[in-house]
């Protein structure tokens, strides 16, 4: 069997502090894989500049000039991590046998790529990189991440526990991925839905050696919320249950009021008026807000705007 032609896709947003270091490591690693005939000589690295405001694009551009096995894609503005990955993948479906996506900070251990490629050789169409040691993350990140994966699984979203976007995908998988047209892209949820034979590779998540995280708490929460509402209508179901429960309680109160009236106990009571009003108006508002969230999602999807816009590609 011929070694597979691999494209490494790396989304970059304000990564000037780390890009040189990342590139040096990747080049060395790929050279080794090529020598060991694990990947084809034409395998390349593709950096996708996701609208960085620092010198990231200049660095990518220079790397492209120095080395024809580096592809640079410049998006017209910041479209987000998921869209940047998609841009790198979709523009190259035709030329490669398999694709690995990895973050620019190399927090995901590149050594795991060898095992990914071997598993691909053995027939896996998707190989998920799974962090089995997150001791380099803060307890807060670990705690929230664990809660997130568990909640997603409970709601019926088929995410792979502790897998982020470090994965290998065969070309076939990418072709099918092209049919998932959603704007609110959440690859961790979509890829398992594609099916095919898949496998996992475990690794220890490392620390960021330079630059800082592009996912502060607010963005992390938004990302998780997006993942949930794009994949599961379970929160709406919860609201329905809650609404039903409220309705039953309301009926009981209703009965109580009627009985009190019949027996002449209708003492003007502030508490018994205010309690139901605050409770029911509060829960109504919450339900409306949640439904609004989903309508907002529908609104975005219906517009079907492009998920990314490419300004230019170097060394295509
Ligand atoms: N990234 C991106 N666009 C964004 C935010 C992040 O392309 O809007 C990239 C970033 O450059 C990095 C990857 O996504 O390669 C993951 O980001 P980061 O390492 O900051 O996230 P963390 O590992 O802290 O969750
Ligand atoms: Mg990171």
Automatic annotation (TrEMBL):
This protein's record includes keyword Glycosyltransferase: yes
A cellular component annotation (GO) from this entry: plasma membrane
Any GO molecular function: glycosyltransferase activity
Locations listed in the record: Membrane
Residue intervals of the Glycosyltransferase 2-like domain: 8-177
UniProt topology in membrane: Multi-pass membrane protein
Record-annotated membrane-spanning stretches: 238-263, 275-295
SUPFAM superfamilies in alphabetical order: Nucleotide-diphospho-sugar transferases (SSF53448)
Keyword Transmembrane helix: yes
Highest taxon above the source species: Bacteria
Keyword terms, alphabetized: Glycosyltransferase, Membrane, Transferase, Transmembrane, Transmembrane helix
Gene3D superfamilies to which the protein is assigned, alphabetical: Spore Coat Polysaccharide Biosynthesis Protein SpsA, Chain A
UniProt protein name: Glycosyltransferase
């Amino acid at each position: 069997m011929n070694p597979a032609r691999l494209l490494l896709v790396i989304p970059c947003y304000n990564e000037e502090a780390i890009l040189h270091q990342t590139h040096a490591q990747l080049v060395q690693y790929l050279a080794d894989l090529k020598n060991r005939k694990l990947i084809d000589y034409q395998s390349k690295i593709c950096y996708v500049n996701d609208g960085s405001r620092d010198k990231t694009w200049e660095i990518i551009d220079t790397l492209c000039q120095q080395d024809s096995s580096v592809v640079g894609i410049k998006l017209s503005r910041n479209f987000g991590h998921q869209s940047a990955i998609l841009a790198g993948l979709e523009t190259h479906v035709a030329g490669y046998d398999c694709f690995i996506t990895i973050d620019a900070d190399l927090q995901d251990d590149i050594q795991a790529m060898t095992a990914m490629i071997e598993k691909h050789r053995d027939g896996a169409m998707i190989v998920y990189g799974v962090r089995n040691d997150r001791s380099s993350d803060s307890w807060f990140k670990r705690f929230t991440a664990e809660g997130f994966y568990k909640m997603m699984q409970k709601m019926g979203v088929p995410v792979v526990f502790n897998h982020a976007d470090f994965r290998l995908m065969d070309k076939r998988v990418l072709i099918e991925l092209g049919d998932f047209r959603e704007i609110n892209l959440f690859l961790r949820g979509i890829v398992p839905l594609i099916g095919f034979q898949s496998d996992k590779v475990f690794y220890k998540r490392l620390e960021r050696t330079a630059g800082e995280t592009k996912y502060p708490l607010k963005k992390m929460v938004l990302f998780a919320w997006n993942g949930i509402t794009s994949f599961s209508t379970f929160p709406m179901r919860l609201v329905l249950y809650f609404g039903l429960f409220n309705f039953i309680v309301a009926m009981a109160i209703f009965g109580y009021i009627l009985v009190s009236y019949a027996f002449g106990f209708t003492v003007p009571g502030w508490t018994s008026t205010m309690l139901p009003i605050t409770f029911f108006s509060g829960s109504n508002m919450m339900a409306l807000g949640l439904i609004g969230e989903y309508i907002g999602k529908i609104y975005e999807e219906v517009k079907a705007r492009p998920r990314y816009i490419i300004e230019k590609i170097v060394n295509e």
